[in-house]
Specification:
The protein is mainly α and 151 residues long.
Length: 151
C-alpha cells in the first residue's frame, strides 16, 4: 500500500480524536485522579495540594482543548488544500500560545510539585517549534501572495 497525503492527514486526525478521548476521560475523572495521585505521592499530602493539582489539571485541559481544536482545524484546511493561508497562521499562533500557556501553568505548578518542570520544558520546546513553523508559514504566505499577483 502506498502512503499518500490524505492517509497521513486521516492518521493525524485519528490521533487527535484519540487524544481528545483521553483528555475528556481525564477531565471527567480529574477529581478521582487528583485524589489518587495525592495518596500515591510522597511529596503531596494535604487538601491544598489536592486543590492545586485540580487547578493544574483543569487549567491544562483548557490549553489542551485549544491545541487539539487548532490542530484539527489545521488538518481540515490542509485536506481542503488550504495551506499558506492567514487562517492557518492564526491556528498555528493559537497552537503555539496553548503550548506556552501550558508551559507557564506547569512552571507555576512546579513550585508545589517539582516534576512539573519536565512538562514545562517539553511544552515550551514544542511551543518554540510551532512558533518557528508559524513564522515559516507567514513568509510562505506572503511569497504565495506575491506569486499570485504576478501570474
Amino acid at each position: 500500500m502506498k502512503w499518500n497525503q490524505n492517509q497521513s492527514i486521516r492518521l493525524s486526525q485519528a490521533f487527535i480524536l484519540l487524544f481528545s478521548g483521553i483528555l475528556l476521560a481525564v477531565d471527567l475523572s480529574a477529581l478521582w485522579l487528583a485524589q489518587w495521585f495525592i495518596q500515591f505521592s510522597m511529596a503531596l499530602s494535604d487538601s491544598l495540594h489536592y486543590r492545586l493539582l485540580l487547578i493544574t489539571l483543569y487549567g491544562g485541559s483548557i490549553f489542551a482543548w485549544i491545541l487539539l481544536y487548532s490542530l484539527w482545524k489545521l488538518l481540515h484546511n490542509m485536506k481542503q488544500s488550504i495551506v499558506f493561508d492567514p487562517a492557518n497562521i492564526q491556528l498555528l499562533r493559537w497552537t503555539g500560545w496553548a503550548c506556552f500557556g501550558g508551559a507557564l501553568l506547569c512552571l507555576a505548578s512546579s513550585f508545589y510539585y517539582l516534576p512539573f518542570i519536565i512538562i514545562t520544558i517539553a511544552a515550551a520546546f514544542v511551543g518554540l517549534i510551532v512558533r518557528i513553523v508559524k513564522n515559516v508559514f507567514v513568509v510562505a504566505e506572503s511569497m504565495k501572495n506575491e506569486l499570485d499577483y504576478t501570474v
